[in-house]
């Protein structure tokens, strides 16, 4: 049995993925991610990144939250607790949405799967899971719903890449191949892999086609092994969180704590997910309607944009962005050399007057001002 692992700062035991032993056997290096000991990479993060772009990569995402919302008022409750119209999603579909505060600040971005008419499975980020559960509990007082945090009982594996559909089709039962091939984006179904029933969803966080597979912790190890074995002919490699971050950055996908936070509103992040037309008086509605009327993210405040530079010297999180007069006009939220594109990319919040694509700005990279060009996100889009 693996001994508990501890953080360097406060020596609090880290939570372990049900696949920890499998990662160790594969020689993974680990990192503390939101209180979980998770694989950072196995061999080369560049190799893992390119595998996802050209073939298939497999990620352990068991640190992500899983919250079950059930009851006659489930749809109405989620339409009050979140900014999107979750009632509009049919069973078998999923929606990306946000939970915000009364003043519109982003508590978390999450995906909600409608399992049945009165049942949803909500997936918050690992670091925000406790906050989301607490908010759900507080916001559910006047609704006939039950809320169950199932995070530590459910394992989650993601298969991402252009060969992911072919791989998944090869490991399900023969009569389920058609189901996999016809599963729409942001939809889910149930399939059997290795004799185990799996909740299969077609979403992703890499910019590639891909699937997420949910099942109980005590079954996830066998699924991991079956996918590794079955994926050998499809170029599948295990992937860590390092390449997951470079992949999502190329795809222009926001990361909570970088692009999203309590200090930011959906309009600034360019997330058109607020359902102003729904009948429920959702939390944050007044603040977000006011921000929209004032032109936040369009004519006032700041907006999230992409920055590119022909070199490989990257602008990193927290670096100041200036205009040609040296005036600070924003801040980098994420940045790295792009393995796919071959040049430096970054996301940054800039004052709206400087967000027109083609605008040139400057970023101080280790004492050297470098020129960057503003572009519309994303940096990379799959064929």
Summarize the structure.
This protein is of the alpha+beta class and 383 residues long. It has helices spanning 20-25, 45-54, 74-81, 129-139, 164-171, 177-181, 217-230, 241-250, 266-269, 285-293, and strands spanning 15-16, 29-33, 36-41, 56-60, 67-70, 94-100, 106-116, 119-123, 146-149, 154-160, 188-193, 196-201, 210-216, 236-239, 302-309, 320-322, 328-337, 344-351, 360-365, 368-375.
Plain-language structure description:
Its EC number is 2.1.2.10. This is Aminomethyltransferase. One of its GO terms (cellular component) is cytosol. The glycine cleavage system catalyzes the degradation of glycine. Residues 21-274 form the GCVT N-terminal domain. Helix 2 (45-54) packs across helix 8 (241-250). Mean pLDDT is 96; it is low at 1-9. The longest helix is centred in the middle third of the chain and has 14 residues, at 217-230. The strands form 4 sheets. A 6-stranded mixed sheet has the order 11-12-13-10-4-14. A 6-stranded antiparallel β-barrel has the order 15-18-17-16-19-20. It has helices spanning 20-25, 45-54, 74-81, 129-139, 164-171, 177-181, 217-230, 241-250, 266-269, 285-293; strands at 15-16, 29-33, 36-41, 56-60, 67-70, 94-100, 106-116, 119-123, 146-149, 154-160, 188-193, 196-201, 210-216, 236-239, 302-309, 320-322, 328-337, 344-351, 360-365, 368-375. Among the domains are: 15-64 and 153-250, Probable tRNA modification gtpase trme, domain 1 (Gyrase A, domain 2, 2-Layer Sandwich), CATH 3.30.1360.120; 301-383, Aminomethyltransferase beta-barrel domains (Elongation Factor Tu (Ef-tu), domain 3), CATH 2.40.30. The N and C termini lie far apart (45 Å). The protein is an alpha+beta fold.
């Amino acid at each position: 049995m693996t001994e508990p692992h501890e953080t360097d700062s406060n020596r609090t035991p880290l939570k372990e993925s049900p696949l920890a032993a499998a990662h160790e056997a594969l020689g993974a290096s680990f990192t503390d991610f939101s209180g979980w000991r998770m694989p950072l990479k196995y061999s080369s993060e560049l190799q893992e990144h390119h595998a996802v772009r050209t073939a298939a990569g497999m990620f352990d995402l068991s640190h992500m939250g899983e919250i079950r919302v059930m009851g006659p008022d489930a749809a109405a409750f989620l339409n009050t607790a979140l900014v999107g119209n979750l009632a509009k999603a049919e069973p078998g579909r999923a929606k990306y949405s946000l939970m915000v505060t009364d003043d519109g600040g982003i508590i978390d971005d999450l995906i909600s799967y409608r399992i049945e008419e009165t049942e949803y499975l909500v997936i918050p980020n690992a670091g925000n899971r406790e906050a989301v559960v607490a908010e759900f509990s507080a916001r559910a007082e006047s609704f006939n719903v039950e809320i169950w945090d199932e995070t530590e009982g459910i394992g989650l594996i993601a298969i991402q890449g252009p060969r992911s559909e072919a791989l998944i089709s090869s490991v399900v039962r023969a009569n389920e191949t058609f189901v996999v091939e016809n599963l729409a984006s942001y939809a889910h179904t149930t399939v059997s892999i290795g004799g185990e029933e799996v909740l299969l969803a077609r979403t992703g966080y890499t910019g590639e086609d891909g699937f997420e597979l949910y099942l109980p912790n005590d079954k996830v190890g066998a699924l991991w092994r079956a996918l590794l074995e079955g994926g050998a002919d499809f170029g599948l490699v295990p992937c860590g969180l390092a390449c997951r971050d470079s992949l999502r950055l190329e795809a222009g996908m926001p990361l909570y704590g970088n692009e999203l936070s309590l200090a930011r509103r959906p309009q600034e992040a360019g997330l058109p997910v607020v359902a102003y037309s729904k009948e429920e008086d959702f939390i944050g509605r007044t603040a977000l309607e006011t921000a929209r009327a004032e032109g936040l993210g369009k004519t006032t405040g700041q907006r999230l944009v992409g920055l590119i530079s022909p070199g490989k010297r990257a602008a990193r999180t927290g670096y100041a962005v200036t205009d040609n007069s040296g005036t600070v006009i924003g801040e980098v939220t994420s940045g790295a050399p792009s393995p796919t594109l071959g040049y430096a990319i970054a996301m940054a919040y800039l004052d709206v007057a400087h967000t027109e694509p083609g605008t040139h700005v400057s970023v101080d990279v280790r004492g050297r001002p470098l020129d960057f060009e503003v572009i519309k996100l994303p940096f990379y889009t799959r064929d």
